[in-house]
Amino acid sequence: MATLLRSKLSNVATSVSNKSQAKMSGMFARMGFQAATDEEAVGFAHCDDLDMEHRQGLQMDILKSDGGEEGAEPPLEGDIHYQRDGTGPLPPSASKEGGVCSELSGQGKPKITAWEAGWNVTNAIQGMFVLGLPYAILHGGYLGLFLIIFAAVVCCYTGKILIACLYEENEDGEVVRVRDSYVDIANACCAPRFPTLGGRIVNVAQIIELVMTCILYVVVSGNLMYNSFPNLPVSQKSWSIIATAVLLPCAFLKNLKAVSKFSLLCTLAHFVINILVIAYCLSRARDWAWDKVKFYIDVKKFPISIGIIVFSYTSQIFLPSLEGNMQNPKEFHCMMNWTHIAACILKGLFALVAYLTWADETKEVITDNLPSTIRAVVNIFLVAKALLSYPLPFFAAVEVLERSLFQDGNRAFFPNCYGGDGRLKSWGLTLRCALVVFTLLMAIYVPHFALLMGLTGSLTGAGLCFLLPSLFHLKLLWRKLLWHHVFFDVAIFVIGGICSVSGFIHSLEGLIEAFRTNAED
């Protein structure tokens, strides 16, 4: 009798402990979710489980109390803990084919309001890369301002039509959700002849964008530190090496809980920094150079500006999960409208007032134009934000690579990079270290923030935000589309294609030239 009583008490204690642990994990997961979307390049990669840290590629298992014992309580809905070794049951849709990013169905999990969804979209399109927008105005003038508005309208529209591709009518004529992610939409468009081709293309685009985002963080860290302390005998390349040395422990990350606690604070600090920059610009309003804002464009450099502007709006890759996790998905369109209108106004004002303040002296990273008295403080905060943001896209890129190369069942190219005990094997660690070193080498040989940002925006940003959504919309729903929708989709595809190709060519030429110059030095 005493043994049975002791056993029951032990089960109850274990159940209470698990529930408490799960609640804390859920709280940090929500914090991590908010932080994970603080940059454009993070949102598109994280395979869409926005309220849970599965969004960073983590496998999570439902906590279960011992169901075989009498008196044991059923698990709380949504209770989770990490399962890095893959021994726990996979999420409901983790066995789906058609892409390396697995997603949860969204059932039985806490939903988010339209305001929370809007906060995440705002974080995704209002990140620190807006610091490059004044440089785009330098080469585009008023046309650059128009493109900031145009890109907001187009990205808002393509986000809505991408969500429309998730739904189809059933036999009863009801519109039901039949797909969960960008990858599912891509695979549906390529089926039945190539059922997994579309998903692989989307995943490759995600990896490229994630890795380029990591490179940009290293570049901007070296640039900001060099311009903050120009009197020190340390070059920009040396600062980049120092930043990478700080980031090397990212290769050993198993989860992002610790990092995500700080990332939300960094996001708030970034908004404060933007306000400080605008306040300084307004204090010099009497000296604004309105005559410097022209209607002509720099034909050679303006295509790069297009990529910079497009890159600052990329968020489409995580929108399907965002909409699926909303309490009222019908509010998605309204949420997209006000978030992109707000982003358009804030970006336009920030870019314009910054350019009017420094005119032809506007630099690639606008904080480098600030007086030395406040530049060092502002730049140090930005470097801290960049270094703390680096693990997010890095970890997501590693997860995609690991699943496609090491963990894709019988189709994996290499053995599983995790042992039975969940420990990372040597080749898995080598992959992570190689990725960190690759970002450093790119930052050293091509230390040009604007060129890299323009190349990424022209290549993957335009593809994921302009080309693919319009193409998928036409392919899946063309029989039900009105003529003006068809016209918009075709126009966006053509214009996006032209901008993407021209921006990619000019950015690539600039990068090759910069690479040769640095190699000679």
From TrEMBL:
Amino acid transporter transmembrane domain mapped to chain residues: 111-507
Main location group: membrane
Recorded topology in the membrane: Multi-pass membrane protein
GO biological process terms, semicolon-separated: gamma-aminobutyric acid import; neurotransmitter transport
GO CC, alphabetical: cytoplasmic vesicle membrane; inhibitory synapse; presynapse; vacuolar membrane
Cellular location(s): Cytoplasmic vesicle membrane; Presynapse
Role of this protein: Antiporter that exchanges vesicular protons for cytosolic 4-aminobutanoate or to a lesser extend glycine, thus allowing their secretion from nerve terminals. The transport is equally dependent on the chemical and electrical components of the proton gradient. May also transport beta-alanine. Acidification of GABAergic synaptic vesicles is a prerequisite for 4-aminobutanoate uptake.
Protein name: Vesicular inhibitory amino acid transporter
Gene (name only): Slc32a1_1
